[in-house]
Structure formats: structure tokens, C-alpha cells
Amino acid sequence: MRTRLLIVIAALALLAGCTKDPAWPPKQQVRLVVRPVWNGTPFHKTDAHITPAQERVLVQQVKFFLSGITLLGKGTASTVSPVEILDITDGEQVRYGTVDVGGYDSLRFGLGLPPELNHADITTVVPPSPLDFSQGMYWTWATMYRFMLFDGRYDTNAAGTGVPPYQFSIHTGRDECYRSRTIALPLVVDQRSTAEIVLDVDIARFFGSGDQVLRLADGPQSHGEPQSLQLAEKFSDLAVAAINAE
Hints:
Layout: H1 2-19, E1 27-38, E2 41-42, E3 49-50, E4 56-73, E5 76-87, E6 93-100, E7 102-111, H2 115-118, E8 138-139, E9 144-145, E10 148-155, E11 166-172, E12 179-189, E13 195-202, E14 208-209, E15 212-213, E16 221-222, H3 229-241, E17 243-245
Parallel strand pairs: 1-13, 11-16
Antiparallel strand pairs: 1-2, 1-6, 3-4, 4-5, 4-7, 4-10, 7-12, 8-9, 10-11, 13-17, 14-15
């Protein structure tokens, strides 16, 4: 009887040791690719495009935060990255994370920063970090971050030629502009190879989707001022909807 008791105790100790094993559950690297497109074709900042508002635009900067990037499964969640800063002006950006091995069916992310990050003390940020002051995304005057930098030029004449004559600059950043979204993404992460997530950012949809149209002639500037908050919120709605898995 004593021998059996010792065997049971040893088995329980072994089981307890396994549950505390930092290598469990097993992990695997994930490659996150974020690429700019225009209506499904590769985006180039030197190309002029016509928007749903029949304005000719030249997009010259697209830079933003993605936060809380998390794979979701049935009763499971695994964080790919807490926050990334992405500048897709010149093409795709690649990031890497590590997640639990397993099956997932969707991806959750935030466009911008949730309040706990947006209002964090920047003096406590240790470089290198997406939240570091050197990234050029901190609004010193407002003691919070800019979520998106979207800049370029536009022309109200869709048939115009040459460099569009007017400038647009939409910078979001107040808490009201933070958006979160969950999209379908069937993905199996196993131990044999690096898994890959590809997100397409359709910049054409920044300017309109369905009945929602962004008309730059009605207001081409937003930099956190209360009077331009309506424009920033509308733009944030369009931008988060423009991000989809391939």
C-alpha cells in the first residue's frame, strides 16, 4: 500500500511539473505581412487615383498603429503582438510574433491605441519600441499619440493632370478614433513551419465604401482639433473596414 501511495504522489508531482513547464503549450513563430493595395491591386505612392467622390488623389503617406493583434479560436486566444507601428507608404511591412500552436478561426486587432496605451507616460517607454517618441507619432501638445498619418494631395477635377494642387492631411489620435475589429481568418499553427498572416490595406476604401464617402473638398484637414473630430471619426470608420485578410 505504501508503495502504491508513493507512486501516486510521484505521478502527481510529475503532472504538476508539466503544467508549470514554460514550454507548454508549444509555441511557433508567426509572420505578419501588411501590404497596401488600391482596389485589390498593388498600391504605388506615385500613382494618382480617382475616389468615389470623383476627386483625383495622390496618397503620399500611410502610417498607423495596429494594437492587440490576437488570434482567436474556440475558447482560445493568443497574442501575435501587443502593438506595431506600420508605414506602408512604400510597400508591405513584415513583423514577427510567437503564438500557441493550434487552430484559429479569426483575428482581432485595434486600429490606433486603446486608452491605456494612448495615455501612458511616454517617459517610461524604453526604446526601441513602437511607442517611442522617435517614431514621430506622439502629440506632445495633447500628451497622447497619433493613430494614423494619412497625407497627400487632391484635385476636385477628376480629369485634371499633373500634381494635384491641394493638400490633404488627416491625423487621427483621440480616444474617439480608436477602432477594434475581428475578421475571419482560418489558420492552423503547427510546429513544423512559420505560419503566415497577410493583411491587405485597401487604401481606395479609405475614401469611401457603400454610402459612406469621404469628400476632401468638404474638409481635407484633421489634427486632433474638436472641430474636425467628425472628419477623423468618419475616416477611422472607413480605414478599419479597409483592412482584411487575404
